[in-house]
């Protein structure tokens, strides 16, 4: 066990790991790399952003921004898969790529399965199209008035709709690409793409569960190698337990970290240490520190106000500063648990009904600016609906793409990379093939851990404090000693 290194790293800086694509190179930041993509487009990006290039079977160039790996055993690595694909079929070759990435080429922008590396887009006063991972940089490049067209709604963590629902953003004129869309930069508008691989509700549960387990193992096994063990941020919950189980099944060396703080339950603070001690993992305790006030301005500059004050607290206190390399995480695990199937029922008779029902289920008032934004999303989802249920689609396109990815964009500022094991259209198709009632009971999540690393189920998942017994007192003593030693 070890405690976190001193916080407040000087590595952090605004617009780290961001990119922008448009009809000319971006000149706002001198240190950025500028690449001629052809088709009258230029890519400008932070040099710390992972990039790789490939030429498809039709001779057109593509650039992969971020980290990607295949989930299906036997699939080609991403660049090799691109080399064999035709330009019009590129969206098929990446359906089973996990990670966090954006793919740019042939005048188009494609996102990862849930849009966890976000993409915003809009047109400048000359009618030219631009796209970027940064809503703040994009607004500047589009020459939008700093005070005009800003959604006045104050975001509150876990109160109401705590994000600006895509396809809108906080700024008028800046739009958010949905995971069910591909952006055509030549036309300046999106077109549909499948949000999941085919959903097969009649498929045997055991078969589906086994395929998911195999795919998670493959995703971790083929995740990029940073030259050091991968990090797993472990709590007492089931999502991070599943990622650790996949790492054990894949044989990848990992280090554990766990957060301490006011929002961490006693179970979150005790169970990870037990697992680390028993299974001989290194574990680092990440403790909050006093807020660094100078970081508030950096947050505003970097995010464009896309996330709530509570969601930036971990960054303001430097709790993640000690992390380097890559963390593999369980983001998108909500589909395994049928997350929105267990909320208050919503009527799906029209897009407006959907928007009002979802807003009400979150405690958002009918007059909120979130309602027209959700209505716009529901109209798109209505036009492109298939077999995916409304609750699952809401989770992927709003909770994951709308809320989670905005937080992830902030985490880019320290250069630490995030790789999401469960994030692909292939995985979503498998998970959503399982009956929602089975998922909502957490049966699928438990069965996956049991298949991958059954020993991890010997430790309680999200236990109440009373179940921890004398361990609570011992933990409090150890925590006090760690804090005195800092």
What's the layout of helices and strands?
Blueprint: E1 2-3, E2 19-22, E3 33-38, E4 41-45, E5 51-55, E6 61-70, H1 78-84, H2 90-93, E7 97-105, E8 108-111, E9 120-123, E10 129-132, H3 135-141, E11 175-176, E12 181-184, E13 189-192, H4 205-221, E14 230-233, H5 238-250, E15 254-259, H6 266-279, E16 283-286, H7 294-303, H8 313-316, E17 326-329, H9 351-361, H10 370-383, H11 390-411, E18 417-420, H12 425-431, H13 436-440, H14 443-452, H15 471-485
Parallel strand pairs: 1-16, 14-15, 15-16, 17-18
Antiparallel strand pairs: 2-4, 2-10, 3-4, 5-6, 6-7, 7-8, 8-12, 9-10, 9-11, 12-13
Helix pairs in contact: 4-5, 4-14, 5-14, 9-10
Could you explain the architecture of this structure?
With 486 residues, this protein is of the alpha+beta class. The chain has 2 domains: 19-192, Glutamine Phosphoribosylpyrophosphate, subunit 1, domain 1 (4-Layer Sandwich); 205-335 and 404-485, 3-Layer(aba) Sandwich (Rossmann fold). Helices cover 33% and strands 17% of the residues. The chain is built from 15 helices and 18 strands. It has helices at 78-84, 90-93, 135-141, 205-221, 238-250, 266-279, 294-303, 313-316, 351-361, 370-383, 390-411, 425-431, 436-440, 443-452, 471-485, and strands spanning 2-3, 19-22, 33-38, 41-45, 51-55, 61-70, 97-105, 108-111, 120-123, 129-132, 175-176, 181-184, 189-192, 230-233, 254-259, 283-286, 326-329, 417-420. α4 packs across α14 (443-452) and α5 packs parallel to α14 (443-452).
């Amino acid at each position: 066990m070890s405690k976190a290194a001193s916080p407040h790293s000087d590595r952090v800086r605004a617009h780290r790991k961001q990119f922008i694509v448009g009809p000319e190179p971006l000149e706002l930041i001198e240190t950025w790399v500028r690449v001629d993509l052809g088709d009258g487009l230029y890519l400008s990006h932070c040099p710390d952003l992972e990039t790789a290039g490939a030429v498809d079977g039709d001779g057109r160039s593509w650039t992969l921004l971020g980290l990607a790996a295949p989930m299906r055993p036997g699939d080609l690595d991403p660049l090799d898969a691109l080399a064999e694909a035709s330009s019009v079929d590129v969206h098929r070759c990446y359906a089973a790529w996990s990670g966090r990435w954006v793919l740019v080429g042939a005048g188009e922008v494609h996102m990862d399965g849930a849009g966890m590396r976000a993409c915003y887009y809009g047109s400048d006063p000359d009618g030219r199209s631009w796209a970027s991972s940064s809503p703040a940089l994009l607004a500047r490049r589009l020459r939008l008035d700093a005070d005009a067209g800003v959604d006045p709604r104050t975001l509150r963590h876990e109160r109401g709709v705590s994000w600006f629902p895509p396809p809108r953003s906080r700024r008028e004129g800046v739009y958010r690409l949905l995971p069910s869309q591909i952006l055509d930069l030549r036309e300046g508008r999106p077109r549909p793409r499948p949000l999941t691989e085919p959903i097969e509700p009649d498929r045997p549960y055991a078969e589906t569960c086994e395929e998911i387990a195999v795919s998670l193992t493959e995703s971790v096994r083929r995740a990029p190698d940073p030259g050091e063990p991968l990090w797993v941020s472990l709590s007492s919950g089931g999502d991070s337990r599943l990622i650790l189980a996949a790492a054990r099944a894949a044989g990848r060396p990992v280090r554990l970290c766990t957060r301490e703080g006011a929002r961490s339950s006693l179970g979150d603070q005790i169970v990870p240490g037990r697992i680390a001690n028993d299974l001989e993992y290194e574990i680092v305790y990440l403790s909050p520190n006093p807020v660094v006030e100078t970081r508030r301005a950096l947050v505003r500059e970097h995010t464009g106000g896309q996330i709530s004050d509570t969601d930036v607290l971990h960054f303001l206190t430097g709790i993640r500063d000690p992390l380097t390399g890559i963390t593999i995480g369980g983001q998108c695990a909500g589909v395994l648990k049928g997350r929105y199937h267990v909320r208050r029922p919503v009527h799906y008779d029209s897009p407006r009904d959907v928007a009002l029902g979802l807003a009400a289920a979150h405690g958002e008032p009918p007059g909120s600016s979130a309602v027209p934004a959700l209505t716009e999303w529901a109209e798109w989802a209505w036009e492109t609906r298939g077999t995916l249920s409304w609750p699952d689609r809401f989770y992927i396109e709003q909770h994951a793409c709308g809320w989670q990815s905005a937080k992830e964009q902030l985490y880019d500022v320290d250069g630490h990379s995030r790789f999401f094991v469960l994030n692909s259209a292939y995985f979503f198709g498998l998970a959503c093939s399982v009956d929602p009632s089975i998922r909502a009971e957490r049966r699928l999540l438990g069965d996956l851990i049991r298949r991958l690393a059954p020993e991890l189920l010997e430790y309680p998942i999200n236990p109440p404090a009373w179940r921890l017994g004398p361990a609570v007192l011992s933990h409090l003593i150890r925590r006090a000693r760690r804090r005195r030693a800092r």
